[in-house]
Each structure stands twice: as structure tokens, then as C-alpha cells.
Amino acid sequence: MKEQGMSLIVKRVTKITVSLIFLFGVYIVLHGHISPGGGFAGGVIIALSFIHLVLAFGKETALKRLSEAAASVIESLGGLFFWGIGLLGLFAGGVFFINVLPKGRPFDLFSSGSILLSNVAIAMKVGAGLFAIFIAMAVLRIPVDEGDKQKR
Amino acid sequence: MLPIFVIIPLGSAFLVPLVSRIRLSIGRVLSLCSGAALLFFSVSSIWWLKGGVKMYAVGGWRPPFGICMALDGLTVLMLVVVNIIGFASLLYSLDYAKRYTSESLYYTLFCLLLAGLNGVAISGDLFNLFVFLEITSIASYALVAFGVEAEELEASFKYLVLGAVASALILLGIGMFLGAVSTLNMADISRSLVISVSPKLVLYSAALFMAGFSIKAGFVPFHAWLPDAHPSAPAPMSAMLSGVVIKTIGIYALLRVIFSIIGFNAAFSEIFIWMGILSMAIGVLLAIGQWDFKRLLAYHSVSQVGYVIFGIGLGTPLGIIGGLFHLFNHSLFKSLLFLNAGSIEYSTGYRQLDKLDGLDEAMPVTSRTSLVASLSIAGIPPFCGFWSKLIIIIAAIQAHRYAGAVTCILVSVVTLASFLKVQKYAFIRKLKGAAQGAKEAPLFMKLSMLLLAFLCIMAGLFFIPVLNALIKPAAEALLAGKDYANLILGAP
Amino acid sequence: MSLYILCLILFSIGVYCLLVKKNLVKKIVGLGIMDYALNLFFILLGYRWNSDAPIMDKNIVITSFVDPLPQALILTSIVIGLGVTALMVAIAVRIYEKYKTFNIDEIRRLRE
Hints:
The structure holds 3 protein chains of 3 kinds.
Chain A: H1 8-30, H2 39-57, H3 59-65, H4 68-93, H5 115-137
Helix pairs in contact in A: 1-2, 2-3, 2-5, 4-5
Chain B: H1 4-22, H2 24-48, E1 54-57, E2 68-71, H3 73-96, H4 103-122, H5 126-144, H6 150-181, H7 186-196, H8 199-217, H9 226-232, H10 235-262, H11 266-288, H12 293-313, H13 317-348, H14 359-362, H15 364-378, H16 384-398, H17 402-428, H18 443-461, H19 463-480, H20 484-489
Helix pairs in contact in B: 1-2, 1-4, 2-3, 2-4, 3-4, 3-10, 3-13, 3-18, 3-19, 4-5, 4-10, 5-6, 5-10, 6-8, 6-9, 7-10, 8-10, 9-10, 9-12, 10-13, 11-12, 11-17, 12-13, 12-17, 13-15, 13-16, 13-18, 13-19, 15-17, 15-18, 16-17, 16-18
Chain C: H1 2-20, H2 24-46, H3 68-99
Helix pairs in contact in C: 1-2, 2-3
């Protein structure tokens, strides 16, 4: 396999769109508490930007940007961050997951207390996790000639 | 203090993969420490219960609006059982899991499993219970396949298919309730079901829950996955699966839904009793012919779980006490037997009983502890299995269920025969076979087996304090039935 | 009512596909159909006629909106479904590596 990935046109377009997709994901995460979206949806979009890279350029290019080990670390950190928000409530407010941060004015970007932080944590967890799952799945290559062995 | 049971294992599940990158041993110690802390807190929860039922509103949102956690007698029993077996299995894993290349993943999954089990036991919200149940299920599917050998993958896939159907049925049941009463808090559902819901809908949801949880628990018409999944898992995971997973996400969740939410009545009693009798008889009959040690134990799990559901299905206070006590005892001795099977496999490489011989001299600790466990499971006095079976049989006679009582006695005899076979082939019989040159298991595996054997003997000798401290509050929680709603919603 | 029944028919198709089909990949597709039917069922439970999406904004006043609780539950259920499906695909891939087939009839080392 000499040439990785798809044709020149796809690669060109991908170079332009991939950063836009990533930024859109970040936007969705940060505005999760005031508009539809949130940590999960935004995290999926962020993961899709990396998956886009894998599809267009092949696995190696994408792994240079975000290696499998880094994805796994980010995933654990995301979980830990979310867990920490819960503990923050326990230690500062006395109840697990209670909101101790200032709530701000409604519909501001920095409002609604710990929801924004939770969205960021979830986005880290989901984005990195989904990318790691995709990379793990991408190792399978079924040889074509064995395909007709499967019945039904 | 209630969320501590979810905080500790979940936190260590996220920390273990991070610290294992620095040094693997830190991850091991961390997960063992969290197991020990959970054990400590679960035992101390017996004293928390003294002041009555406890309720904890997560995030400060009072029920029925927020998710709540609830602690009553049944929850305490499940927490103690889960965390005793969890700690023993983690201790055992310190040596056993060295055979796997990705050990840190093993501990991560194990901590997630503990988080799920504790969460199922402590949750007071039906959907939250479902989420924890799925965490447990996913962790156990992955752990069953952890060895990535052909048989393990096959068993895991089978387990996954049936588990997915079970989860879907449970979720459908939850949807029925949500549609009928527009709330998910278990106490609130229980209160609302009395008022304005058609009995047909309740019956239909009850059928869905019964089917779903029975698949998870492995009662007889639904047991197809169990004899494959149990032997294929790593030994500590088999101990968890048989000791606590099928009990927590199967029996505990079923009892919670049937007793606390829907309300126990004669129809459920009849179903439980017949399911119990079928499980007892068919499980043990399938077990006799097995030569694979772990597969034999798996069939015995089906049979012993039948005792539990039979005892509880009698519906009398004595029957419920017997059933719950048998649940406690079974998790001790069956986990111990699975750990024994694991250490035999660890040192000889075989699980086939006819290929083993004379391990008594080579592996004294494994041999003696498995003798304790075998006598317990067969119901020989004064070991713990005897007392719980005795209580169940007396309760069955008092309730005029003579067929059930006779089945209990016959199954107990056949179980004894089956475990005599195990003792004879694995430990006593001396031939010059493949098991020559076997060595005793390493230190932590021995410690873990000794811990469980000690608890087995203690539960047999001092069964009255155990009954008073653990089992009676649990039985009271079940007998309170739909009073659960008032207890939880009125709790501080 | 007929919507709920259609939903349950879809669910039954999923269960049928998951339990009866011989090919592992088809089983996974069946799991997906089953999950989607359940998700649809929950969303229908929360639906109210002539109501808006429960999204608040500065300039919009909403008087009647659909029940957002089932939607939140379904988001969780979708995540769980993602996890189960990913695990199932991973195991199916490994099974293919060991047995060189997706046909369940040829994957029977346990039964011998």
C-alpha cells in the first residue's frame, strides 16, 4: 500500500473542512447549556473530525495528531474531571453533584454553574472514547477472496 | 454518605488507566485499596441502618424530581455481599491477572463492575438502576471475553445477545411505567401505581421485568448463557459472576421491582416457587454429568439460585429469611469454589476433573478450602449452607409446599454426590497423571481463598448473629412491601 | 395507539433478527433495530400534540412543550446502545479472526 487514503480532491476538501468541523464541535460543547447540543453531541462531532482525517488520509496521519495513547489518557481525564465536579459539590456544598459555582445570568455563555464544566468533561470523554473505538475497529481488514465463504 | 459506594469504584476506574501508565503496581494497589474501602464502608452501613431507612438526594434535588439513593435492609445485605466478594476477587487477581497483557484494563473493568453493582444496590431511581445494570452488564461481557480465546469470545457473544434482549425488555418495562405514571423514582412509582393505573398494564410490565431480570439471573427457562459464560471468564470474574452479578442485577433488581414497586401477591409467589423448583432440579441434573470443573460449578449456580428464589417465593417471613440467607451463603461458597477451580487451572493447566489427581498433597490450601466450600454447598452441618437450606425446608413445610420441600432435600443429596465426585477426582484419588508437579497457588490467591473459607466457617458457626445483623433487616425490607414508598419519601 | 403498536412491531422485528439470524453481523443490525424501536417508543411517550420542542431562548415564549424527560433518558440509552454495539462488533471481529466465519452454525467449539 503505497498511497494512503483517498483521491486528491477529497484530501484538498478535507484539509479545509476538518478544522471547521472541529470548531463546530467545540461550539456545540460550549453552548450546550443554552441551546440544543451539549457534551455528548459536541464530543461526537469532535471525534468525527478526527475520523474524517482517518478516512481521507489514512490512519497514520490522524494518529500523528492524536495518538491512541493520548486518546485513552484524555478519555480517562474526562471521566476524572466529571467525577471531580461531583466531588466538588460534595466537599464545597455538602451534597454530591450540588452546584457550588455562581449561576450567572440566564442565556449568557458563562452561566448555569457546573453544567458548562460537565459538558466539557463529557465532550472529552465521548470524543476521545469514540475516536479510540473507531481506531480499534479500523484494524480489521477482511481479505476479499474469503468473502464468499460466508453463507447467508 | 451513601454516594460513597459509587464515588470510590468509579473514581478508581478512571484513575487506574492513568496511574498504570506510570507504574502498573500503583494501579493494582489502587484498585485493591478501593475494594478494601468499599468493604469497610459496606460493613459500617449495617450501623448506619440502625436509625431507620436512609435517603440521599443527589445534587440536592429532592425526590420525586431528582435522582435519589436509598439504603434499606435489602440494600445493606447486597452491599455487604458485593463488597466481600469484590475484595476477595481483587485480592485473588493480584496474582491471577498477571497472565494478561493488558492488566490495567482488567482492573479498570473490574472497578467499573464494582461501581455498577454497588450502584444497582443503592439506587432509588428506576432508570438509574437500569443505567448501573447496563454498566455492570457491559463490564461483565468484556471481562468474560478478556482472555480473547475462541471459546471465551463465543461465550461472551452468546451472553451479549441474551443480555441485550434482557436489557431491552427491562427498558420496555420502565417505559410502560413512565408512560403510565410519568415518574421514575421507585418510591413515587410505587405510590402512584395504587391510584390510577390499569391492572393490565401493571401485569404486562411485571411480565417484562420478570423475563428481563430472569435472563440476567439465569433461572431455568432462561439459563442458556450461564453455563458457557461462567467457565469462560477469568477465575475472579467467574467468582463475581456467580457470586454477585447474577444476584445483584438479577435477583435483587427483580425483588425490588416485584416487592417494593408492584407489590407481591399469590400469582408471583406461584411463579417464583415453580421457577425455583425447576431451577433447582434441572440445574443439578445437568451438573452431575459434567467433567469440566467450572462448568459443573456453573450448573450448580443455576441450582442454588433456585433455592434462593424458591425460599423468597414462599412469601412467609421464615421463607424470605431462608432465601436471603442462602443468597449470602451461596455467594461465599460458590465464589470460593470458583477461586479454587481457578487456582487448580493456574497450577496444572487443566479444568477437566478426570485429568486431575491427588492434588491434596501438592496444593493443601486449595484442597482444604475447597473441602469447606463443598461441604457448605452440599449442606453438611455445621457449615453455612446447612442452616439456610434447613430454614428453607422448614418454611416450605410450614407453607404446605411438600413437593418443594422434597425437591430441596433430593437436590441437596445430589449436590453432595456431585461434590464428592469433585473431591475424589481432584484431590483424593492418586494416580500418576497430568497433574504431577503441581505447585500451590501464589500468596495472594491463597490469602483470598483462606479469607472466604474463614467467612464460610464463621457464617456456619455463628449463624444467629449473621441472621440478626444482616438477614433480618433485609427480610423486613422485603416484607414491608409497598410501604417502601412511605419509608423512602419520609426518610431524612 | 397505532403508533405504539407499529413501534412494538419494529421491536419484535429487532428481537427476531437478533435471535434467529445466523450471521453475527445481522445479529448486530438486529440489536440496532431493537434499540431504535425502544428509543422511538420513549420519544412517543413524551410527545404531546401541537407542542414545541422544550428549548428556551431569549425571544421565544413557549406555552406548551413536549415532555423532555424521555428525551433525556433516550440520550442515555443511545450512549449505552453505542457501548454495547461497539463491544459486540469488537467481539464479532475477534471471532472472525479465530473462526474465519461469521456464521453462527460454524462457531460451535463450546458445544463439543
